[in-house]
Amino acid sequence: MAINTYLFFSGGTCAEAFERYRDILGGDLSITRMSEVPQDSRMPGSDPDSVMHAALVFGDRMLMGSDDPTGDGGPRLGFSVAYTAPDTETAQRVFGALAEGGETTMPLEPTFWSAAFGTCTDRYGVPWMVDVASGAA
To answer: Known SUPFAM superfamilies for this protein (predicted)?
Structure first.
């Protein structure tokens, strides 16, 4: 069994966000647009270019999402997408890229539990926590 994060994006930004996440995190990205869905299975009034489903697979992990058919993306409260880097250099690269155009809420720095930990909200409004794997430098 797996528990995966599923993100909803407002304003038709899902494809752009997931292409950026692929550029930052690596992995294999698949995107299904509403135009690829059988007509009778589409949400009425949906934009054919909107993302019905996106999946970014890296290692044994998967991040999923879609454009929110209601258009507002819904609230993003009480959670963060957590990324654990194998080393500090990778954490710095990933954190810097995720924070670019967004907001840093806690700079990436050493803590008593990790060689580096930081929090940010990316340019798409998604909150992230980045840390370094236990025992790594």
So the answer is: Glyoxalase/Bleomycin resistance protein/Dihydroxybiphenyl dioxygenase
In terms of Cα–Cα distance, which of 24, 66, 62, 70 is closest to 45? 70
Q: How many helices (H) and strands (E) does the chain have?
A: 2, 8
Domain boundary among 27, 44, 67: 67
In order of 8, 59, 91, the CA distances from 124 in angstroms are: 10, 24, 20
Residue whose structure tokens are 């994060």: 5
* pLDDT tens, position by position, 105-115: 999 999 999 99
Alpha helices in the chain (DSSP H): 14-25, 88-99
Same domain, 62 and 25: yes
